[in-house]
Amino acid sequence: MFExxxxxxxxLVGMLTCPDPNALKPDRVDAILARLNETSKDxxxxxxxxxxINEQPILETKALRTGTLFxxxxxxxKMRVSFTTLKQDNEPVAPTREEYVFDGVDMTRINYDxxxxxxxxxxxxNHPLDAFELASRYWPIIGFAKVDELKKDFDVxxxxxxNTVVQLRLKSLPSSRYAQDYAFIDFWIDTGxxxxxxxxxxxxxxxxxxxxxxxxxxxxxxxxDVFDIEVPENFGKNIIPLEK
Length: 244
Fold this sequence. Notes:
The chain is α+β, with helices and mostly antiparallel strands and 244 residues long. It has a single domain, classed as Clam (outer membrane lipoprotein receptor (LolB), chain A). The protein has 4 helices and 12 strands, in the order ααββββββααββββββ. The protein has helices at residues 2-17, 21-41, 131-135, 150-153, and strands at residues 45-56, 61-72, 78-88, 94-102, 106-111, 116-121, 154-161, 165-172, 184-190, 195-202, 208-218, 236-240. Strands 7-8-9-10-11-1-2-3-4-5-6-12 form a 12-stranded mixed beta sheet. Mean pLDDT is 90; it is low at 4-24.
């Protein structure tokens, strides 16, 4: 009887003194986001290979694009995403060229297959936004800008935490500006650079958008002419003003 009572006391003491691992997760999530926020603020230039998948299960279609992302954050930030290959469903990989440029005010999309240019104003000229923030309206690119505001839009939980990769799941809050586009985003962070590796989102109607970044080069010299793209004169142009 004495031995049983002693065992119960030890067990109860252990339960009181040893924290529940799940209870530590919110603090760990906050620490991850805080470090990611600091790393993103220090980002001056960034270049990486892009693998982008858009899958629509209802229509049974899948498009895989590859290309390169360029970002420069000194002064007014700029981003260019240059897609160079396209694989549609079971078709072979085909060369293509489609350029997206975000300059803090406008999104310029140049489609060389369709010979078209779209220039869409996304913010006021006297109030430019971060290029990554603008790009997040087109792809589930998060973790590079305004990391400290993620919890305003998402319920953030820890999925896995290893020596090389951290995975978070971000569920859109009902009031989130992303709620109509994404039900949730699975988000992987490289623990070496502490920058995003991959973002895989599912929309409320089950469309999957998977944006993967590979072979990143961080804070190396980048010339401004990377963002200057000459458009052939015979391309049709569509200019869309800022929505009021």
